Every structure is written in C-alpha cells, then in structure tokens.
C-alpha cells in the first residue's frame, strides 16, 4: 500500500526532515500559512517556517526563490512582486497606470477571482492577518515600486493605488457588480488606468 | 426581577406580537439579518421580516422608515440611501466627487471603521451575502444616483465609483495602510475626489 513516490518507512516521515519532493513544497505552504499570520510578514523568517515544515531552509529557495514568493503562494496572490514591479516601471512612464491595471485584471481574471475572495476573507478575519498583508504590501510591493519611480509622497501614492486596485478586485471578483464584472479587460483598463497614473505621477493634492 | 420597561409577563413575549418599544427594533434587526441573506435584498419583504420578528409590519416604517433603512441598519451601513443621493446631486455638479468622498470618509471615520470590516467580512463569507449587498447597491444607491445624474453608461459609472469607495474603505479601515489610514480627511478628499468626478461625469473610455 506504500506509494511508490514515498520511500520513507511509514511513521518516520513526520519526525525526520522531508526530502525535496512535492510534499516538501506543500509542507512549506502549510507552515507559511501558520507562521505568517502569527509573526507578521516582516518578522517571520525562512528559518522558522522551514523548521516548522521539518525541511531544510534551503528548500524555501529551491521551491519558491525566497520568502516573498513563499508568502504570495501561501495567500494565493498569483504574482511575483519583484518581477511585477520591474514590469511596471519598464517602458513609457506615462503608461504605468495602464500596465498596472492590465496586469491586475489579467492575473485575477485568469485565477477566476475565487482566490481574491479567499484573500479578502483572510484579511478581514483577524487583525493579525490584516497586519501580515499590510506589511507585505508596504515592504515588497509598494516600497519597491515607489523607490523605482522617484516621486514625491511615495507611500501616499502607493496607498492610493492600493485603494483603486483592491476596490476593483472587490467589485469585479467578490461582489460581481455588473456591468463591471463582465466588462472586457481593455474597457476596464481604459476606465481605471488614468486613476492609477494620476496617483503615481500626477497631482494628488487637489491644487492643480 | 422584571424590568420596568418590559411589562409583558415572562414567557409570553415570544409568542405574542411585540409592542412598539426598543425590543421591537432589536427584533426587527435580528430578523432582517436572518432574512436578507437568504432572500436577497430585492426579494425580501417588510412583511416577511416583520412576521419573523413577531411584530406588526407597520413597525418597520415606525422604526426604520422602510425596507432600505432597515437593511442599512442591519448590516451597519451608517447612511440613508435616499438622503445621501439627494445630498450628492444637490449643488455644483462639478463637485459631486468631492461631496461623495467627503461624506464617505466622514461617515466611516465616525463609525471608527470597525463596522466596515464587519461589512466586508459578511459579504466575503457567502455568495448569498455578496448578492444581497450587490442588489442593495444596484437598486438603492447606484441606480438612484445615476438616474438623477442623467449620464451615459450609468451602471458602469456607478460601479467604477463603487470600486474607488470600497477600496478606500478597505485600505483606510481594514488594512490601516499608512499614511492613508491617518491622513486628514481633506487630504483624502483632495486625492480621491477627481477620480470619482471622472467616473461620474468624465471620460471613462480612454479616448480623450
């Protein structure tokens, strides 16, 4: 009855360190889902999560490339923060808003939105979970984006972008509000890109 | 031991119809929280909710002025849809966005945001709850607003406003993302009002 992909003796697997297979990846995801909400994003370490999963810390790099992507995988955020920020800031600076909303809608449309509901459910469940996501956004996504852009009021601009992105996700994927929920991707881009562009590089003080 | 505000004999209160006191109001709120998520906003009737609460349907008008405000009270939305839409559309049409975001932030700041978290938690919990809020927004808030404004693409414009409002609430009151969470009300108004104004009366097709 022993599976051919599992060559450890029954009963010993949970005590020893796991090998490098798919079950290691799953164990890391489970451990991450336990550790991040308790420790927060900033304080949680690769070492703590690996120990809890019973695997070598090097397995985090092997399977996820580091703490950031382990986190995004554990909360079902289907993006790599470093590469997505690189994508946003590369190219015409007057079209960053357009690239951001197009990528956001593409990613979550393909994930069929279900995981956006799961994400919202988890962050509204406890103060700890909300802190975890806040720290991740601040540290990994917004901080990086606004450092690259060299604008004034970087944190405020990033937070404003966050409001528009999160609200779009909420209305399109959770509330399924029509006609937005079924609107063509490019129609959503056309409507919302100017908002993100202004938040990132335009006037946000109402004096223009 | 009988409270002086409750003159019914113990044990009889749940069987008979309630009087017009504060316990009637509470019973209606409890019944509304049971009926709306099951029936949806549009299909739920004052009669059904009153019957479930064991009170006369006239008590809904007496305590809440009708189904709309019974609903908003039951989900802790601290606004009256009819009067808030009236407030938005009265005055300079180029400053509707400003009035909307100022009112939104004022209302939820005063509610200390906690009920915004509760609202989000309830709509992400079940598909029924999300449908209930969607129907309410469409029927009572957005439909009324865009009818008053006489613009093209009214539903799309209303939904776009919804994305920005909901996302602002999420970031300011649930995630507590700084510096947005602590920003002065008027700073938030200055940053976000132009977005709502464009969604309501400006170009949303990206051809300008």
From TrEMBL, chains A, B:
Keywords: DNA-binding. Pfam families: TetR_C_16, TetR_N. Residues 1-24 are annotated as: Disordered. InterPro entries: Homeodomain-like_sf (IPR009057), HTH-type_TetR-like_transc_reg (IPR050109), HTH_TetR (IPR001647), Tet_transcr_reg_TetR-rel_C_sf (IPR036271), TetR_C_16 (IPR041678). Residues 22-82 form the HTH tetR-type domain. Residues 45-64 bind DNA. GO terms for molecular function: DNA-binding transcription factor activity; transcription cis-regulatory region binding. The keyword Secreted does not apply. This is TetR family transcriptional regulator. It comes from Allosaccharopolyspora coralli. The lineage of its organism: Bacteria, Bacillati, Actinomycetota, Actinomycetes, Pseudonocardiales.
């Amino acid at each position: 009855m022993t599976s051919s992909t599992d060559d450890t003796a029954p009963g010993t697997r949970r005590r020893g360190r796991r090998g490098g297979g798919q079950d290691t990846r799953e164990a890391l995801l489970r451990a991450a889902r336990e550790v991040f909400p308790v420790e927060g994003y900033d304080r949680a370490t690769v070492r703590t999560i690996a120990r809890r999963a019973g695997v070598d810390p090097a397995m985090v790099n092997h399977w996820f490339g580091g703490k950031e992507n382990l986190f995004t995988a554990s909360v079902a955020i289907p993006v790599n923060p470093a590469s997505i920020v690189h994508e946003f800031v590369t190219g015409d600076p007057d079209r960053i808003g357009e690239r951001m909303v197009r990528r956001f809608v593409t990613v979550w449309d393909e994930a069929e939105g279900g995981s956006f509901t799961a994400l919202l459910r988890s962050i509204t469940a406890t103060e700890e979970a909300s802190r975890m996501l806040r720290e991740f956004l601040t540290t990994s996504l917004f901080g990086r984006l606004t450092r690259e852009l060299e604008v004034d009021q970087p944190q405020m601009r990033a937070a404003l972008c966050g409001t528009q992105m999160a609200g779009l996700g909420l209305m399109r994927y959770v509330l399924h509000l029509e006609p937005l929920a079924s609107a063509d991707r490019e129609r959503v881009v056309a409507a919302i890109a100017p908002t993100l562009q202004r938040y990132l590089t335009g006037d946000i003080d109402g004096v223009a």
